[in-house]
């Protein structure tokens, strides 16, 4: 399906709202019809590549909406449920258990890393 998304192609450029193609939800995924969304400081850090994330990218992880579809294995929400979206966290590491899920150790371990040597391209 075609949706509108905030896309960034190069370090430091402005976000472009443009159409992108979105696949149907896969196992463990949820499709949400967004009612509200925002760009947060983390997205700005990625925009400026202060936090490495491969570009081009669709950014934005905060918002609210209504669940439209769920992928296989999803049992915590169903179509029609209102939801609030935030950042991912594991809920099991020391940071999560101490009330700081924004510093989730597992999320950090599984996030893309900036390469030690960047290509000249």
Task: Please list the strands of the largest sheet in the order they lie side by side.
Answer: 2-1-4
Number of strands: 6
The structural domain count equals 2
Radius of gyration equals 16 Å
Which class of the largest domain in CATH terms? Alpha Beta
CATH architecture of the largest domain: Alpha-Beta Complex
CATH superfamily of the largest domain: Medium-chain alcohol dehydrogenases, catalytic domain
Distance between the termini: 33 Å
Relative strand content: 25-35%
Main traits of this protein?
about 120 residues, alpha+beta, 2 domains, three-stranded antiparallel β-sheet, about 15% helix
Topology, element by element:
Blueprint: E1 2-8, E2 16-21, E3 30-38, H1 41-47, E4 57-58, E5 62-70, E6 82-85, H2 94-97, H3 105-110
Structure description:
By secondary structure, this protein is an alpha+beta fold. The chain folds into 2 domains: 2-85, Alpha-Beta Complex (Quinone Oxidoreductase, Chain A, domain 1); 88-116, no CATH class. The protein has 3 helices and 6 strands. A 3-stranded antiparallel sheet has the order 2-1-4, with no helix packed on it. A 3-stranded antiparallel sheet has the order 3-5-6, with no helix packed on it. The longest helix is centred in the middle third of the chain and has 7 residues, at 41-47. The protein is globular, with a radius of gyration of 16 Å.
């Amino acid at each position: 399906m075609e949706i509108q998304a905030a896309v960034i192609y190069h370090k430091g450029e402005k976000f472009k709202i443009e159409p992108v193609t979105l696949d149907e939800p896969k196992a463990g995924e949820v499709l949400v019809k967004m009612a509200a969304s925002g760009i947060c400081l983390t997205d700005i850090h990625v925009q400026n590549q202060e936090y490495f994330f491969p570009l081009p990218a669709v950014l934005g992880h905060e918002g609210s909406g209504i669940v439209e579809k769920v992928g296989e294995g999803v049992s915590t929400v169903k179509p029609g449920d209102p939801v609030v979206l935030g950042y991912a966290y594991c809920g099991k590491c020391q940071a999560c258990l101490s009330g700081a899920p924004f510093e989730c150790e597992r999320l950090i371990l599984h996030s893309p890393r900036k390469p030690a040597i960047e290509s000249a391209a």
